[in-house]
Each structure stands twice: as C-alpha cells, then as structure tokens.
C-alpha cells in the first residue's frame, strides 16, 4: 500500500504542477480544489456501485449452487426409484411380446390401407402414362411414372424395413408393378430421341428440349435422395440409380460422333476431291452446330451442366478420332496436304474454331492438337516420299515432252526479246511453285523441306538434261539433215540454261527469307556449273555445225582453184551471216563468241592481214614479232601457217623467225583475253599451204 500511496502522491503532484504553471493560475486554486473533489466523489461512488454489484452476483451464484445441489439429490433419488421399478417390471415386459407383434401387423395393415388407392389404380395409371408418352406429353407422363415408382418403392421399403429376408413378398410387389420399368425405358427412349436431334429441336421447339432436361433433373434428384437413404437403410429400389444425366451426355457424344462420320458423301473412286469435300462439310457442320449450342442450347440447360463446354469437348474428340482414321488410310500426296492443312490451319482459323461468334468461350490457344506430333510427322514423311517420286516422274515426263519438240519441223517459240526457248523451264518451275505454295499452307518447315527437295531433284534433272542434249547432238551428226531445226532448238536449249539459272535464283529469293533458311539452301549442290557446261557444250556444237558446213569451202581457200576463181568466200560469208542471224537469238551471257566481241576479233584479222600483205620480206621478222607481242598466246603452228600463206617464205626463214621469237621474252597484258589458244591448225592444211 505504501508504494501505491507514493505513486498516487507523485501523480497528484504532477497534476498540481501542471495546473499551477503561471502566477495567474493561483487565483483558481479553489476552483481546481472543488473540481477535483467532485471527481473524487464520482469515482468513489462508481467504485462502491461496482463492489456492490459484484457482491450481489456472488450472493446469487451461491444461492443457485445450493438449489442445483438439491435438484441433483432429487434426480439421484428419482433414478434410484426408476431403476427399482425397471427391475421389478422385466417379467411384465416379457409378457408383452404378443402386443409387439400385433403392433407390427397393425403398422403393415396401416401402410397397406394407405396405399390401397394407389395399388388399385396402378393399371389405370400405367395406361394413362403410356398414352401420354405416345402423345409426346413427356412432363405429364413422367409425373405419373414418378407416382407409380413412389408407390412401388414405398411398399418395397416398408416390406424391407419390417422383414428384409422375405423375398417372396418383395417379388410379389415387384411383379405387380412390373410395367413401371417398361414405362421408364419407353420414356427414356423418347428422351434420347429428342437429345439426338437436340440441335434441330432447339431451333424449332426449345420447350421440348427444356422438358427433357427437367425430367432428367428430376431423376437426378431422386437418385441422390435414394443413395443418401441407402447409407442409412441399405435399401435401393429396382432400377436405381438411373443415371440419366450421365446417359444424356453419352447420347450426345454418340450423336456428335455419328454426325462427324456421316459427312463423307463420296469416295476416291467417285470423286478425286472427296477428302476436300468431306473436310469442308465437317467444317461447316461443326461451326454451325457450335454456334447454335452457344446461342440457344445453353439457355435450355442448367448452368452446372456446362453444356457448351461439354459439347465442344465432344466435337473436338470426335474430330480427333476422325482425323486419325483418315490419317491411317492410304492417302495420296494431295490428300495428305488437304488433311494437314485442315488440321493444322483451318481448324483453328476464323473459318472454324477461331470464328468470332464462338468467342470468348472457345480459345484456340488452349485447344489440344487434333493429331499427335508423331502422326503429323509420319504424314509429312509419307508426303515427302510420295512427292519425291512424283517430282521425279513429272521431271522425266517434262523432259520427254520437250525432247519431242526438238525434232519438230517448226522453229521454237521466242520470248519478248526474240530469244528462242522451249516451255520446259516454265513447266518445271510452275510445278515447283505449285508444290511450294501447297507446302507453305501447311508450315514454314515443310516449305523449306520441299524447296530443298526441288533443288536436289533439279540438280539430278539437269544431269539428265545434259545427257539428252549431248544425245541430241550426236543423233544430228549421224544425219545432219535431221532434225530440220537443230540449230534453233540447240539455241533454245542454251537459252533454257539461263532461264533455269534465273528461275532458281527467283525461287530461292521468294521462298527462303531468313538467314537460317539461306544456310539450308547453301548446302545444296550448285547447279550453275552444270548449266554453264550444258550451254558451253551447246555453243561448241553450234560452232561445230558452222565449220562442218564451211569445211569444204574453207578447204578451197589458198589453193590453185581459189586463185583461178572461186565463190568460196561469198559462200562462207553468206553461211556465217545466216548462222549468226540465228546466234543473235542466244541470251546473254552465252552470246560471248557469237557477236559481242566481234570488234576485238576484227582488230586481230587486221593485224594478221598486215603480215600477209607485207611486200618487203626483210621486214617480215619485225611484223611477226609485233603480232606475237600483241597476242602472246599465238603458237608456232599459227606462225608457220601464216608464213606459209604468203607463199614467199622459205623453210629456213620460217624456222629462223620461229626460233628467234621463242628466245625473246613475252609479257602478256593483264587484261588480255586469249584468242589463238582456241584456234586449231590441222597439219593437213599447213602441208597444203606449203605446196
């Protein structure tokens, strides 16, 4: 208490110090004293009231405890009396067994009397229910069916509760209500028929569909109630649970599957486009059905049925199954493309599941693929295998067709620049374009694979093209009168090489866009070398053709016959002019040697002419050395033939000039293009000129 008193005094001192901080506050000391006295009195009054209340509560509690003790003693005495009476009445209870049995019989009779009305009216209710089912009044029919089942189940439950081992009475009740199960099955058939046509019914008579759903909901509630009672009594009426909701979804699932499978109206034998038509019908039906389900059917079912989500899942699964069946068939290449395009692109596009009318309930980003990656990969491998065979066959056929044009009696077509050409490059690359466009519809990866395949087959094709061009030349050399337009078609073959090169570049530029894809293309064999070889061999064969025609007339030059008078030069000029009018229709860069460098060659002819027309033999060495310095690739046989043409050079002088020139160094111009290395000097002609 001393500590409490000290704490109170300290608190009081602080309060007084807070009140008397200024001199003018001393005048209010009496006022402060009265206020504090009032507060003290108020606190003391409240404290007394609280203590008094506590004392009253304790007094009341003690009184109640005393009363409770007396009550407990009274109950204890009563229980003792009851126990005494019960022991004395055991024998009396044993003698009341007959009364108990009478009570049970009375209960049975009371239940029977209560159900007599329903029992006697069962045949009539059965007939009425059957009529209502036939009339399509499904709700009313179900109500009467429920009454029948309720009477039957009630009687059977009472029998089970009183004597569960009495199977004879149970069988009797079940047989009396035997028509009830038949009515239930008949009603179920009507419900399933409506559900099978639900997508049509919901548009024509949605009330009928709603009635079906209400009946199913009633049966679901009855099933749940009976299963709950089973936990307590172990009694389950016959035919329960019906599980009509589960059966409803099974019926809808079978209906969806049948609808998908029934869309195939044609076969490959009757229509080459059977798969395209089949897939298009599926697309249209599924889209229309889901739109109807989203906008109309959801209004006929309780929300917890999630009817649209379930229907979407059913359609997806049915489509997946159907696509797998189609993938397992022996499909052709175009059919594989149609299937994969539909599965990988069309299905999730705005034309089907991505349609705005299905949003937001349908999210294509979470839809499972219709075909597994393994099946897709297998289909792609099959497609690539078939496509490889087809491309090889198409290229072979295109080349055979082009070869038939080579022996025609009419000249080949010319392009806008007047250059000869055949349709082979256009046919080949049109085929490539078509296959690449188709592959691009499926995936970028397949497009790249098809392009690589096309380039690989093109490489092999060009090797065959080279062989056929060589065979064409050899066949012509055996009989130069045929084919009639050999030169023109050989020019077309040469021009085709340039067209092929341009088309290959264009194809790569169009279908290889990324750096990664460019890397793929670089691994393919280069075809430029083969094309250049074909063109060069073609050009050589054309030059050979010219010289074969000129051989007889060239052999007359520098001979006595030529000196006495000959038109060989005129024939040579006319022949060359005629050939080069055709050679002008060769595309760049293959014109080189056929006219583009003619000016440079004319300078060479002028330089040779200076040696021939030189009148002073003493200057012959100087003139020849000038020629050699200008054309360092000139060979000894060229100089020998040139000196022999003059006719005034002895063998010794010729040999001296050649030996002297061989000893002198020759420095070639870096920009010099060799000319004489390609000019052959037959020894026969040299000998002829020396005569």
TrEMBL record:
MF terms in GO: SNARE binding
Gene Ontology terms: biological process: exocyst localization; exocytosis
CC per GO annotation: exocyst
Pfam families: Sec6 (PF06046)
Record-linked InterPro entries: EXOC3/Sec6, EXOC3/Sec6_C
Homology family: Belongs to the SEC6 family.
Stated name of the protein: Exocyst complex component 3
Organism, scientific name: Neovison vison
